[in-house]
Amino acid sequence: MMRINIYDIINSKNALLHNDGIAIFQEAEKLHDTYNDTIELDFSGVNRLSTLFLNASFGKLLAKYGAEITRHYFQPANYSQISSFMEKFNDMWDNFENKENYQAYRELDFA
Predict the structure, then answer these.
(1) Which residue among 5, 21, 41, 94 is least enclosed by CB atoms within 10 Å?
(2) Which of 50, 72, 62 is nearest to 25 (CA)?
């Protein structure tokens, strides 16, 4: 298993920005395409995150690889200090799986 430390890449305890999510997506994409191994996305040191960040990171992984591969290969970890993590993560995932209802939303946030 490989690991991406979110804090080390975005240099912030707040994972809020679209560009930060894109940076995580690009790193995860590069590791997956190179090694085809499970990647743990480690949120140690991160205290806050936004749906915008999740859309730009995990949402783009979902758009590229689909739900089955994303669920298997890209695993969030060490996020218990972020009280709203699972709620936001599940909302992001649900929005993707119901994409026909969120097409305009996706075109903006996954661009």
Answers:
(1) 94
(2) 62
Residue spans of alpha helices (H) in the chain: 6-10, 18-35, 51-54, 60-73, 85-97, 103-109
Which residue range(s) make up the domain with 77? 2-109
pLDDT tens by residue, 44-75? 999 999 999 999 999 999 999 999 999 999 99
Least Cα distance to 62 among 86, 90, 104 occurs for: 90
The three-state secondary structure class of 23 is: helix
Q: What is the pLDDT of residue 103?
A: 56
Report the DSSP beta bridge partners of residue 15.
49
